[in-house]
Amino acid sequence: MSKLTATASCTAHAATADRTGEVVPQALLVQRVTWLAALAQGLSARIVTARWNAPDLDALACGVGPDGRALPSKGWMAVRRLGWGARPATGVYVCDRVQRCAQEQAARALRLALHRRALLEAIVATWPHDPGARTDAEWHALRAVLPNGATPAQIRNRTRQVRAFLNEHGTLPADLTELEQPPDVAAEIVLAAADRQLLTLERTGTRSARLRVRLPLTASPACGKDWAWHVLPITLPPTVPAQATVCTPTLRVTQGRVRVDLPFQIPIGFAPATGHVIACGFDWGLNTLLTGVAGQLANDRVISDGRPLAYDASGVSAKLHRLRAEREHLAAKHEHQERLLVGMTAADPRVAELSMACQKVGVEHERLCARIRRLNKALAWSAARWAVDQAVAAGATVIYLEDLATLETRGRNARANARLSGQVRGQIVEAIRHLAAKHTIAVVTVPARGTSRYCPRCGEGTSVLRHCPAPDRLAERGWKWAYCSACGLSCDRDWAAAERIVSRGLLGQNATRTDHTTGVRTISKVVEGNVARARRTRKPVRAARRARRTRTDLLPQSAARDRSKNRPTPKRPARTKRAVDNAVNNAVDHVMTSSRVPDRRTVPAPPPAGGGQRPAGHAPKPGRPTPHRTGHVRNSHHRTGFHHAKATPVLTLTKHRAAQSRPRPSELPDSLRELQRIQDALSEQGREPGSAQS
After folding, report:
1. Are residues 407 and 509 in the same domain?
2. CB neighbours of 650 closer than 8 A, spacing ≥ 6?
3. Do 517 and 584 lie in a common domain?
4. 8: which strand partners?
5. Nearest one of 522, 498, 503, 471 to 285, comparing CA atoms
6. In the structure, what pLDDT confidence band is assigned to residue 229 with cuts at 50, 70 and 90?
7. Contact 504, 512 (CB under 8 A)
8. Domain ends where: 482, 517, 533?
9. What's the chain's average pLDDT?
10. pLDDT at 687
11. Which of 408, 440, 410, 149 has the alpha carbon at shortest distance from 276?
């Protein structure tokens, strides 16, 4: 058993003085937390600025202290062993635990700079002749010296940064300290390095916790009497389970409120990397955000259930495009106003009005950026929750995704990949890993090259698909539909790609590699194989409904036994009001039935307790399994959350399990059969089912 760590953001509205019991209002609490964060920020900034040079970064990178011992893993202990402490201002008293927190924050900033430094050294050492178009040999040389965890976005951004430095100075940067200024330190207090002398944290209930922390009473405390204990009651969000263990938080002030970033740990099981039989594969589609299939490995062959899974976020994507266009417009307007202010003198009467307008535009720009970030995050978690729910419903033990590092923007895919990149595919992958770990489901990435090009049904990676606009326009060039001239496959392009992804994952699972630093699992070896689609059997309810429409049902027994055609075929019984009334009152079996789904509940609803309209809903169907959660999207069972996204409902697939028998109409109780006949008779008469009196 291992533990899954996550972070929940909470808000502390008020606090209580520990000794006097006085209630501290929110405004005063915000002020005191701001003073504590400012003290820690000042100490951390001094350490980072003083050690922003090549020799000190080399000393931190080597991992060995001046005494020859290895540096501890905790940042504040490593900083103290190197002798990189910082003193507060003269006359300001800061306890040792606050200095620990400041040193921990500085160590994290410097260790993060070491990764950027290693990436910069690799790019400079293999600087190509044309940075905009590296050859295959130059890419191979660069990947050989890149640090672990380097992404294509980081390589692209660092290359642009080095090229701008080269154009300005005429030479390549010698070190990261020459290329960048010391990083800014956030105004927050990292309490992970503190102990009981600075804070205590305990969980008091399923949705509540109690944080006891020492805060300064003034901006510049002179002695220990200027510090006091405060008790902060915290309301935990619903994302924190009851069995989770809360950890030491981080305090910060955002928009006039005290925010508590509270990490928590959940015990989870171990998901093996190999030995999987049932899997779900998802493709970063051009038609939808996510397109997936469920596949089963049987005798070294992958069999799909023939049901595509789609998460369409085109509505949310269009909204994000509109918000980004508005953001760019506000940014350009703000920059223009700033340039105008620089060219004006202080005596100009237009300065005050322009300054106020520039400030308003800046505030609106920040609000718009925050709105885009929240929408991106909500979309990522909604898509990830939907994908994990589909895997749980299919009984899958692994989820295969395309490796984001191998995606290339070529031809027409450039615009689509840019659109999907704006929807934070990296956040979706991290959310899928987080949610899948709770269900003990492994998440593995496979190479993305060629998944949409080759046919998943034949050729094992040799038959090239023809992309066209629609199945009835195969001669035209397009991108939405895929057609194979060799085997006749005609399906959605993303569906075919998802089948190839699940095939590569199941057939190549023995080549899975796990990064021991991050725990990310990847398959770099491409193993091709054909995918067969298994059609599910028809539901027994449909066969039973058709059996009711035989000659035995429609004609008397004497006429049914007469098989000769010497006489004309008798007509069907007339649909008269008297026949319907007789069917309702006497429950006659030979009246025609209808398979129309009732629009409202067939069973009379109970009378409302407090008055008002009588409730109604869909008719309950016996034997139907309870639907799973669907990621909170439209056209699902919950009908909450994103109303601009459409997704395939999460249904339990019985293909990979024992078939679940459903009761036939003849096996239903007599009361339900009678109600069904009444409903069918009313439907044939043309009356609304809801108008029938109970």
Report:
1. yes
2. 386, 389, 390, 393, 627, 628, 629, 630, 631, 636, 637
3. no
4. 262
5. 498
6. very high
7. no
8. 533
9. 79
10. 47
11. 440
Residues 471 and 523 in one domain: yes
Which has more confidence, 276 or 285? Answer: 276
The amino acid at residue 221 is: P
CB-CB contact of 483 with 466 (8 Å):
yes
What pLDDT, on the 0 to 100 scale, is given for residue 642?
60
* CA proximity to 208, closest of 191, 232, 189, 230: 232
The encoded tokens of residue 262 equal: 């509270």
DSSP state of 464: B
Three-class SS of residue 505? helix
> Does the structure show a pLDDT above 60 at 665?
no
**Mean pLDDT, rounded, for 498-514:** 91
C-alpha distance from residue 344 to each of 65, 171, 487 (Å): 54, 37, 72
Cross-strand pairs, 257: 254
382 and 472 part of one domain? yes
Per-residue model confidence (pLDDT) at position 343: 87
Residue 392's domain spans which residues? 278-316+377-533
Kindly write down the DSSP assignment for every residue of 326-363, as one continuous string: HHHHHHHHHHHHHHHHHHS-TT-THHHHHHHHHHHHHH
Q: Quick: pLDDT tens for 615-645.
A: 545 544 555 555 444 444 444 444 434 656 7
Q: Domain check: are 435 and 408 in the same one?
A: yes
Whether residues 512 and 493 share a domain: the answer is yes
Q: What is the CATH number of the domain that holds 384?
A: 3.30.420
CB 234 within 8 A of CB 10: yes
Q: Of the candidates 286, 269, 228, which has an alpha carbon nearest to the alpha carbon of residue 35?
A: 228
Q: In sequence order, which residues have a C-beta less than 8 Å from that of residue 125 and are 6 or more positions away?
A: 145
Whether residue 594 sits in one domain with residue 482: no
CA 662 to chain CA centroid, Å, is 35
Burial of 112 (0-12, 13-18, 19+ CB in 10 A): exposed
